[in-house]
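Usage

Read records sequentially. Each one opens with the input sequence:
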Amino acid sequence: MTDEIRRLIRDLDGIPPELRRQLRPGLRTAGRIVADQAKINAAWSTRIPKAIKVSVRFSGTPGVRVRVDRRKAPHGRPYEHGGRPGTFRHPYFGDRRRWYSQRARPFLAPAVASKGRRAAREIDRVVARVTRDAGFH
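and closes with the structure output:
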């Protein structure tokens, strides 16, 4: 993550509402760069790609988020496995007396690894354009 993006995240709380409205579409577009790759990576699933969403927040912990809606794809998090290959265990058809090991299939972390720099450049570009248009130097 670039220093400029870190400063932006720290300073987002003080951004006027009009600038937030101008930043939001460009930040969402940057998030879609990663989300689109995550959807491709998770194409083996019928539910996970449809459950991948992008959101932009300016309050709380501000930033661009790419996440999987756990109501639509509750299996997304176990398969992501923290972005690491390996296996995870779960009850065999819900029977807690029998456990099954399954291969993890990370899809989001590899998308960030392959498209994160491009998304960061897009964020830098959007922030520079919006702040320049608003008269900041």
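Summary fields computed downstream for this record:
- The CA atoms of residues 8 and 127 lie 8 Å apart.
- The chain is about 50% helix and 20% strand.
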